[in-house]
Structure prediction request, 80 residues.
Amino acid sequence: MSTLTIQLPESLKKNIEALASREGYSVSQFLASAAGEKLAVVMTMDYLRHEADAGRREDFEKYLAAVPNTPPTTESDRLD
Prediction:
């Protein structure tokens, strides 16, 4: 583990402390979890952008054409 000192607005610090306490976490655990979640989101977006850039429209059209054109099987699947 390593230590990181950050500066937060007092109102944000109080809200973090209250939420961490309510959820049964220490402030350190809460912030580590929040940072990990944010990192996962950013890394996922980077991955998806990379995959999208590597994709080809022709391949997409080919796979889309292979999907059968059938009506929804349940009412909840309808779009209209």
